Amino acid sequence: MPLFIGRRPLPARTAYLWWEGSWSLLQTVAFTLTLLYQVQVVHLNPAQLLLVGAVMEAACFLFEIPTSIVADVYSRRLSALIGAVVVGAGILLQGIFPSFWPIMLAQVIWGLGFTFISGAVDAWITDEIGADAVQPLFTRYQQQHLALTFIGILIAGALAQVDLRLPMLVAGAGYLMLAIVMAPLMPETRFERTASSDRPTWALMKDTFRVGLHAARRPGVVRSLTIVALIAGASSEVFDRLWTIHIFDAFHLPATGALHSTTTWFTLFALIGALISLAASLVANNLAADRINALHPHRLLAALTLVQAGGVIGFAIVGSLWPALIAMWIRDAASNITYPVQSAWLNRNIDSQARSTTISITSQADALGQVVGGPTLGALANRTSVSTAITVAGLLLTPVAMIYTRIRPSRPTATETQP
């Protein structure tokens, strides 16, 4: 601890990349093989897998607004640091106790921690460097994220050869260390903290929530992206929770000699997917930089959504392992290109006063979609098959493309007013 006392804050851009890079690495170590752990060690069935996901998303839904208001009223930097500690505790709990009910409790703790992070980090860096400067930084982060994902997968795979719980234990401890290291290094110079005489009043929190809710309900970019989050959440929950068990059910994985064969194969799948996503992001930024950095990228996002839908459906219906995996990797690559573009577009259309709360409302919509969509399509999987449920999840994405194409700017931009 004395090593970090008195350290000066880093430049905001550097601190953001350090924070997000560390988060990406730890998240990859923790979650690359979590589903494999839940299936092979804890022996969860498809219904339990989706129930675990629904509980996590319900926690996100319930805690999202209160924790985002804390970020908007007290400190976005503090909210992020608290989130890292709570997330680390949830991951440690899941790794220490390999049974159904501790894992359920771990999802609640993890969901609480995530809501402290959700919206706070994006709102913090947007305030620090300005809304017009975040798109290139978000894109750079996404490429860094993909590169560190590759490293994290290797670490997770190596640790899992010893014990499938070990990646979670290492990552959980890493999140606690991240909060300690970054506490003196993250600047917060542009955030106007509410005066002590005015906080913490319910009226103030209610006013902050109303500003965010008004932005989400007003016709325009924010409302449309909130609807997109609701639908996409319902689709993604099913795919993200069931793709592992679909591979077990539908395909045969060859033995890999002395290594733990299943762990080795799933590590390899993750590595190839990360490389494809990184290459796709680099190519897209070189060949279509003007569209990625556009102030109103609705057509690009619509096209990427259709690619994701096709990838999900292809994964579900293709009868051979490698073509199915290619479809999944294409879906993941399109999703990774989409995230920074949509995030920057959303931030450009939000007032700073309630930026974190407004972002959290869209996250809450995503959580609600997952809470509703997961169990519903889980029931469909039990009555029919896992592949049928994943196919329906892919079809759910197609209306999102139409929503993107119909979004109009909330206000005229310089680019759009030029002849």
Describe this structure as you would to a colleague:
The chain is 78% helix and 0% strand. It is mainly alpha-helical and 419 residues long. The protein has a single domain (12-183, 215-409), classed as Up-down Bundle (Growth Hormone, Chain: A). Helix 4 (76-96) packs antiparallel against helix 5 and helix 4 (76-96) runs antiparallel to helix 6. The model is unreliable at 1-6, 196-202 and 412-419 (pLDDT under 50). Residues 1-411 form the Major facilitator superfamily (MFS) profile domain. Keywords: Membrane, Transmembrane, Transmembrane helix. Pfam families: MFS_1. InterPro entries: MFS, MFS_DHA3_Transporter, MFS_dom, MFS_trans_sf.
